[in-house]
Amino acid sequence: MNGTVELKTERLVLRRHTADDAEKLYERFGKDDRMHKYIGRNPYATLKRAKFTVESFLNSYNDDEFYGWAIEYENELIGTIGAYDSADNREFIDIGVSIASKYWGKGFATEAVKAVTGYLKTTGYNTIKAWCASDNIGSRKVLEKSGYVLKSTDKNALDIDGRIYDRMDFEYKEELDE
User: Mapping DSSP to helix (H, G, I), strand (E, B) and coil, where does residue 25 land?
Assistant: First the structure.
């Protein structure tokens, strides 16, 4: 079974998005500049754009190769996580997570990344990857705690709103998870 299926962890429910998520994502992500500081794009910048983004998620759920979840904690939408940029031959897929700033530092991102990584391991991808900007210490820690190891650093590879960062590329290593 592939595609976005509901996943549960000790504290979280990772579920498909619903149309009701758009306004919450706009409020918690779109209006908070910290949420897109290291990615340079804000798919929730306006309510209209948030609705369009969520609608694109909803339209993609029929595709068994689409992986996109809303992250809930105590019935509250606190983040998103997805896997994307996959190779046609299932050689690799990238994972990305965002947690609303109110919930930073509580281990939610690590918990979600571990859950999605575990699921993706069952879908036939040979390699699960992730990247972050060099200054994004929080994301780096999440990846390392989730069993990802730094594979390479591309100097000055990211230009995000005029700020230049090194791009740190990570790969999941199963033996670290055992």
Answer: helix
Can you tell me whether residue 71 is helix, strand or coil?
A: strand
pLDDT computed for residue 175 by the predictor = 59
Q: Among residues 12, 138, 140, 172, which one has the least CA distance to residue 76?
A: 12
pTM for the structure as a whole: 0.93
Q: Are residues 131 and 156 in contact, defined by beta-carbon separation less than 8 angstroms? A: no
Q: Assign 178 a pLDDT band (cuts: 50, 70, 90).
A: very low
Tell me the Cα Rg of the chain.
16
Q: At what angle do helices 137-145 and 108-121 cross, to 10 degrees?
A: 50
- Locate 171 and state its tokens: 């790969």
Q: Which residues lie across from 45 on neighbouring strands?
A: none
Name all domains of the chain by residue range, CATH numbers in brackets.
Answer: 7-176 (3.40.630.30)
